[in-house]
Amino acid sequence: MKARKHITFIIAFCLTAGFLSAQSDAEPVTVQVKNEEAINTKGLEFSPTFFEDGIVFISTNNAGLKKLTDKKSNQFYTSILRSRRSSDGSLTTAEPFAEEISTQYNEGPVCFDRTAEVVYFSRNIIVDGKEKYSKD
Known about the structure:
Helices cover 17% and strands 31% of the residues. By secondary structure, the chain is of the alpha+beta class. The chain has 1 helix and 10 strands, in the order αββββββββββ. The strands form 4 sheets. Strands 1-2-5-6 form a 4-stranded antiparallel beta sheet, with no helix packed on it. The longest helix has 23 residues, at 2-24.
């Protein structure tokens, strides 16, 4: 049994080494990492998805929406925000994605159908430690 494990390990090692040596013949790839300062806050920003000329994402930045504050984290409940790309390619200041679907509670994450005409998102309402249903 031990011999099979060693043979399997040797085969896997040889295949990996061959793959890596084949990769080293390719041109190096340069990756630029940039801080999107216009949307990056001290709060939470997560779950970005491409939409039209920018992104839609979830944030504790309320971007002018009326949101309650989470007592545990001392941050606003999450909002669905949108940021467009400027002419230089950087993201612009976040704005509410759609005020019609915004409440004072947690919204997001979000995704779209393949036509980007239907949006799917979740909403989480907890009041005094108990889950509540949204009336709207």
